[in-house]
């Protein structure tokens, strides 16, 4: 059984949107994110809600397949932890 989880500590999230605008899966779903725009739907892995990052569709994350950990590394508040 998969234990994969994208944990976001909202007390540390600064709402910078970097994770949202650089995650390759988010960009595939909503290409306008690469221009710094906001998600238009809830189909993305994560988006800001009330100024904080909220994980909506962790199942879309390809961390296991591609060993991506971009969001965890790039997070300015060190708020993201990938649990694999
Ligand atoms: S690990 Fe990579 S694919 Fe998964 S949510 Fe983070 S940036 Fe996106
Ligand atoms: S990169 Fe980190 S601090 Fe910035 S929105 Fe994402 S979770 Fe929050």
Characterise the protein shown here.
This protein has 84 residues and is an alpha+beta fold. The protein has one domain (5-83): Alpha-Beta Plaits, CATH 3.30.70.20. Helix content is 24%, strand content 19%. The protein contains 4 helices and 4 strands. The chain has helices spanning 18-22, 24-29, 63-66, 70-74, and strands at 5-8, 46-49, 52-55, 80-83. The strands form 2 sheets. Strands 1-4 form a two-stranded antiparallel sheet. It has a two-stranded antiparallel sheet with strand order 2-3. A hairpin with a 2-residue loop joins strand 2 (46-49) and strand 3 (52-55). It is globular. The termini are close together. One iron/sulfur cluster binds next to helix 1.
* Termini Cα gap: 11 Å
- Please identify the structural class as seen in this structure: alpha+beta
Number of domains: 1
**Name of the CATH first level:** Alpha Beta
Which ranges are low-confidence, i.e. pLDDT below 50, for 5 or more consecutive residues?
none
- CATH topology-level name: Alpha-Beta Plaits
**Overall form:** globular
* Number of β-strand runs: 4
Q: Mean of residue pLDDT?
A: 94
Bound molecules: iron/sulfur cluster
The helix/strand series, from N terminus to C terminus, equals EHHEEHHE
Cα Rg: 12 Å
Largest sheet: 2 strands, antiparallel
Helix content: 10-25%
Strand ordering within the main sheet: 1-4
Number of helices: 4
Beta-sheet strand percentage?
Answer: 15-25%
CATH architecture: 2-Layer Sandwich
